[in-house]
Amino acid sequence: MTAHAPRLLIIDDQPESVDLLMRFLAERSLDITIATDGEAGLREARKDGLDLILLDLRMPGMDGFEVCRRLKADVHTAAIPVIFLTASADIDDKLRGFELGAVDYIVKPYHEREVLARVFVQLHHKWKMDRLQTMVGQRAIHSAGDKAFPDEQLFAKALSILEARMSDPPGLIELASELGTNERKLTDIFRRRVGLTVFDYFSELRLETARHLLESSGMRIQAIASHVGYLNAGDFTRAFRRHFGVTPRDYRKARGGVEEQEAA
């Protein structure tokens, strides 16, 4: 995604939770900072170059909701994606988290695949947004050149193809052939980069794309489902709810989005 290690901030007062996250993320190319309370987390978040925040909900003093509210109210930190980590599976907590601007909500106890998938999907999305905003005069990914970071470039190109063909993705053999490599090498690159197979990661990418469209567009839910490769809205709704804990419609309402109505 970038030539430098993405910067990730964990705000959590529970040592066992932090230790578990560090075990999951230790072998990935990440620059990780830890804060054990909300005030310290806000101070760290204001430092330049932060890419993602993993935020515990229940903390003494300032809880995660208030930390998130302050992050989104500060122009210096508002664009940093926030993923809530919590033992609470209460739907009202989830909806409040999304209302405050969180991009995801992971219920404890969580598993390595789940954490890696959600972390790297958000890092990829932020990288795309940052690149769009700084494209004029920016040489971020091209400055290093394909020769300097061949696996990084292959990973980025694979994601570009999958995103462009989200409703009809190529199989692994076809994707590898289009990239000029083989299935084993491509799988190895994804496993080293994000800890997942190509299509495990792609499954997460589809739902993140849908979440973004629910928030930022007036597309009908059926159209979003088709865009990200679901044959019917029911399958999409079930997949979305399993992942985010709320339905697409409830998520859109929480984020203040309005679904476009069909013409009469």
Q: Which short descriptors sum up this protein?
A:
single chain; 264 residues; alpha/beta; 5-stranded parallel β-sheet; 5 strands
What would your notes on this structure say?
This protein is α/β, with parallel strands linked by helices and 264 residues long. It is built from 13 helices and 5 strands. Strands 2-1-3-4-5 form a 5-stranded parallel β-sheet, sandwiched between helices. Helix 3 links the parallel strand 3 and strand 4. About 6% of the residues have low confidence.
Write down how many β-strands occur, each being a DSSP E stretch of 2 or more residues: 5
- Tell me what portion of residues adopts beta-strand conformation: 5-15%
**Low-confidence region ranges:** 132-148
Helix content class:
55-70%
Order of strands in the sheet with most strands? 2-1-3-4-5
Spatial extent as radius of gyration: 18 Å
Biggest sheet statistics: 5 strands, parallel
Tell me the distance between the termini: 44 Å
